[in-house]
Amino acid sequence: QLQRAVVDGQVIPDPIASDRGVTVALSLDQYRYVINTMPIHGGGTHPATEIEARFVLKNRTDEDLALNFRSSQIHDIVLRDESGRAVWRQSAGQLFAQIGSEQIIPPGEDLIIEARVSTRIQGADLPPGNYTLEFTLSASQRFAGSAALRVIHAR
Question: Residue 75's closest CA among 117, 31, 15, 126?
């Protein structure tokens, strides 16, 4: 049984998060996303299907949890295909102010971040298949979650 691992410098499980009762979860509004590829009479395309993601960090400790951010970027989202290749990254091509900040999560409180991710990337619908959506808080402490999803085309 795996008790502890270090992956890309990250300790899994995070001993700070585990010992302090801090948990994270990423949930999606559904598992299967259907993209309508049926032709539209008169031309055009159907609206893009959107993935609704909800990231929740729970502070179930008796102390404030200070999240320290090195820039104006609060989080990043990556969509990976079955092979693990990133097909979309929210922060790609973005500039972030290099101004640090701190966000305090009081005891018993939650940090909730909701986001929408389009299944249309650079004008093209995602191919059918299995994907993983990864959400990472951009704080100096590493908090992340992932969720599996499936894309299907309706013709």
Answer: 117
CA dihedral 31, 130, 23, 100 (to 10 degrees): -110
Q: What is the pLDDT of residue 4?
A: 62
Q: Taking a C-beta distance cutoff of 8 angstroms, is the pair 59, 110 a contact?
A: yes
The Cα 87–Cα 77 span in angstroms is 11
> d(Cα 58, Cα 43) in Å, to the nearest integer?
47
- pTM of this structure: 0.81
- Give, as one character, the DSSP assignment of residue 61: S
- Dihedrals phi, psi of 119, to nearest 5 degrees: -90, 5
Beta bridge partners of 110: 58
